[in-house]
Specification:
Length: 470
């Protein structure tokens, strides 16, 4: 062997020797490149295929199996990963994901591709014809126990399945449909699997139609501001309005935000809606403020808007183009967002407050209700959520809670607006407990601008303070 090598080395001319060396170097580089490529395609935590490689792998498989067609996509999501991660720590969470990755791989059949899509989401691509049996097996693997830091944990998981070409004819639809099925499996309790079917297809078509209609509705001016008065408890006067969006749908009639705001948030259309509503509302209400009919106009903003670091600057810019004074505007921010990104919230709130814009905390009492967080922010108003007001005067514990919240707010110099006041009993209780402002069906339901203006004009005289100004 050794002799042969030496012999070869001696017998080839110098140039051929260099060629051999070159070939060896090329092979080395190619191996390196393959390694880099493999690493780029691999999820480092689990060693499974990563999201990028999964997408291209899925497309390749669909192309390859277009003729003999049967490719099932299973999307897998752990049911209780977040709470395990929170209670045991991120490192334990990582161990769990790595272990689960190993088990999924060990369970995989020939020709199957398993990927980690990110977080606690995995995917399996299989050509196994028995979709139900394969899904059952996945759910069983997900339900197994793991021992992490000596503790037995069993997060359980849900699976959504869609099949090519029976359910979907391309990779994007296949993923979308498997996701819809996963969502259904999770929302019916988890630890189960669900396959895309006719009911989900109907839902998906309904959503697509709604999406098209919504995109068209915004430039067509079909989204309009409605108004609900805010009442001063001591005098019973309407001192402000809250702007509430309505969609005047050409076929379905008037739609409340619940029918389109969540969809608009998902599609990234909420900003356009909020801007359109804001502009129309400012145009209508600026004269009411100028005449002293009301003091303030409250607008809702979506948490999605607030995630934009430029949100407050843009809002101030848009406000300057209207005739509404900054001091007459209240921006309602939900408490859940505030606590999600306290630093960003603070920046927005301080920027708005510096211009004289009032910031109100909306839906207070549904989240963590952290009055102490409020102390450090220039928030002047808190809106007590309807869920609390509902039980006021009926449930003595809630009544006491609301009364003590009102007291705490007063001591912090924060004004409280009670939302969803529906009965005289609630109104009387809230007034006697020192709640300054109220809003709800007991006083008036949301209404179109013309009706709101007529109602405001029926109040005999403008409020004395504003009469002096305006
Ligand atoms: P929200 O800001 O908490 O608004 C109060 C909601 O309670 C309104 O529902 C209002 O009609 C309703 N309401 C008022 N008084 C009563 C009452 O006495 N009883 C009951 N049962 N309900 C009452 P609406 O108009 O359906 O709005 C729902 C939510 O949609 C709003 O909740 C707000 O979060 C959102 N929203 C409304 N307009 C806009 C908008 O222009 N932009 C954004 N981003 N969100 C909006
Ligand atoms: Ca609100
Ligand atoms: Ca609210």
């Amino acid at each position: 062997m050794r002799f042969q090598q030496d012999h070869t080395a001696h017998s080839v001319p110098q140039s051929s020797k260099r060629l051999v060396e070159l070939a060896a170097r090329v092979a080395e580089l190619e191996a390196e490149r393959a390694m880099t490529l493999r690493l780029a395609q691999t999820d480092s935590l689990t060693g499974l295929v990563n999201r990028g490689a999964f997408s291209s792998g899925l497309c390749e498989r669909l192309d390859a199996h277009a003729g003999d067609g049967h490719t099932a996509l299973f999307i897998i999501d752990l049911d209780r990963f977040k709470s395990l991660n929170d209670s045991l720590g991120h490192h334990a969470g990582d161990l769990l994901l790595a272990e689960l990755g190993r088990r999924l791989r060990a369970d995989a059949g020939p020709g199957e591709m398993i990927a980690r899509l990110g977080g606690d989401e995995f995917a399996l691509v299989s050509h196994d014809a028995d979709v139900a049996a394969r899904a059952e097996r996945l759910v069983a693997v997900l339900s197994q126990q793991h021992v992490i830091y000596g503790r037995a944990v069993s997060p359980g998981g849900s699976v959504g399945v869609a099949v090519f070409p029976a359910d979907a004819q391309n990779a994007a639809d296949l993923q979308h449909f498997a996701d819809m099925a996963l969502y259904r499996a999770k929302s019916s309790g988890g630890r189960r699997w669900s396959r895309f079917d006719a009911a989900l297809r109907d839902e998906s078509e309904r959503r697509r139609t709604l999406e098209d209609e919504l995109r068209r509705a915004i430039p067509a001016g079909e989204i309009e501001p409605w108004f609900q008065p805010i009442i001063e408890s001591m005098t019973g006067r309407m001192v402000g309005v809250e702007v509430l969006a309505r969609w005047r749908h050409p076929a379905k009639g008037l739609l409340a935000p619940a029918a389109f705001v969540p969809m608009a948030e998902e599609l990234g259309l909420i900003r356009e809606i909020d801007e359109a509503v804001f502009e129309a509302a400012c145009a209508r209400t600026a004269p009411w403020v100028a005449e002293g009919l009301i003091e303030s106009v409250a607008c809702n903003v979506s948490p999605h808007d607030l995630l934009d670091p430029a949100f407050s600057r843009k809002l101030i810019g848009r406000l300057a183009k209207t005739a509404l004074p900054a001091t007459a505007l209240t921006v309602e921010i939900t408490e859940t967002f505030l606590l999600k990104d306290l630093a960003l919230s603070r920046r927005h709130i301080e920027r708005l407050a510096a211009k004289g814009v009032n910031v109100a905390l909306d839906d207070f009492g549904t989240g963590y209700s952290n009055l102490r967080a409020l102390m450090h922010l220039p928030i002047q108003t808190v809106k007590l959520d309807r869920s609390l007001i509902d039980d006021v005067g009926r449930d003595s514990r809630v009544s006491r809670l609301v009364a003590s919240m009102l007291q705490a707010a007063r001591s912090l110099g924060v004004r409280i607006v009670a939302e969803g006041v529906e009965t005289e009993g609630q109104a009387l209780f809230l007034r006697s407990a020192g709640c300054e402002r109220m809003q709800g069906y007991f006083f008036a339901r949301p209404m179109p601008a013309d009706a709101m203006e007529a109602m405001l004009r029926e109040q005999e005289t403008p409020t004395p303070r504003l009469a002096a100004v305006g």
